[in-house]
Design goal:
two-stranded antiparallel sheet, Cytochrome Bc1 Complex, Chain D, domain 2, elongated, binds heme C, mainly alpha, 4 strands, 7% strand, 8 helices
Amino acid sequence: MNDPILHPQVADQMTDHNYDGIQEYDNPMPGWWKMIFLGTIVYSVLYMYYYHNGKVTRSIHSDYQAAVAANLRLQFAEIGELTPDAKTIMQYVDDPKWSVVGKSVFSTHCVSCHGANGEGKVGPNLTDDLWKNVKNVDDIAKVILEGANNNAMPAWRTRLHINEAVLVSSYVASLRGSNPAGAKPPITGEKPIPPWSATPQN
Ligand code: HEC
């Protein structure tokens, strides 16, 4: 096979690679192109450092979380600091405004173990009359704050605002008798308990 006849100037620009007659021009990436490429790498590191270090007001996500927390504090100012007693828990069971907060705490922190409707997964069914650590309605708040069974049920005292703990207790109390689909059979040690209204509320 004949070598292709190349103009001398073009021949200068060829690399000496030759694979079965296929040759390669010696055209390195232009310097400006490489600089832009390197620039994007440097920029990405600075970007990560600046926006993803968890400081408030630097990313939409942390802004949003800060706004939600501030809003919740503002709203809680309206009801003050709730006490996790039977009277308070029962008072918020049917409260149209505040039961929403309890439900949202449940959806965020509890459904992974207790199921979307409290029907039970790793954690027990919270909708029937059989309970293990709970005899009175205020025991719900105790279990939530302190945890149970060596933290198989985690303690939420440091992770939830006390009002969130009380409101999610009200939400759990409201689930009783709801008979959700897929309700889990009782875990060992569960006993039937009297209705919530039987708890003395003074
Ligand atoms: C990591 C899984 C897990 C998460 C998350 C979890 N739980 Fe539990 N929960 C359990 C387990 C397991 C038990 C059973 C403890 C036992 O056997 O004594 C339990 C028990 C309970 C009980 C007592 C039930 C009874 O019969 O005594 C209540 C009330 C409860 N959880 C509410 C909640 C609420 C409200 C949340 C969210 C704030 C929550 N749990 C989050 C696993 C979990």
